[in-house]
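User: quick one, sequence for these tokens?
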């Protein structure tokens, strides 16, 4: 399983950004895909995840400001973020658990700054 995040960048406070996680491997479309973030000097934090049927769960950090969707035919999962704040600045990662192993992408940097 390989994961690749994209779509990060610099955005002003109050702005929006959409991140993409592209997965490889035939089983990706059947996996729960999670989004996490890690700010400098802080622990990695759960943003949310999406299951096979599109069921989502969100962590407290971005609840109400994050929406996760997926297109299983394209092996893609998106994290749409809105009303971004400076404290949302972090490296964002997608993650899957498969056969007892945890897989992570390389991350994409999101910077919220005026």
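Assistant:
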């Amino acid at each position: 399983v390989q994961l690749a995040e994209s779509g990060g960048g610099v955005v002003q406070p109050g702005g929006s950004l959409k991140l993409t996680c592209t997965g490889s491997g035939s089983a990706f479309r059947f996996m729960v895909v999670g989004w996490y973030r890690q700010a400098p000097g802080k622990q990695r934090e759960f943003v949310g995840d999406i299951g096979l049927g599109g069921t989502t769960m969100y962590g407290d950090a971005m609840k109400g400001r994050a929406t996760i969707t997926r297109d299983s035919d394209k092996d893609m999962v998106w994290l749409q973020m809105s009303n971004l704040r400076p404290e949302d600045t972090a490296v964002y990662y997608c993650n899957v658990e498969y056969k007892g192993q945890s897989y992570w992408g390389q991350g994409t940097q999101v910077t919220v700054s005026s």
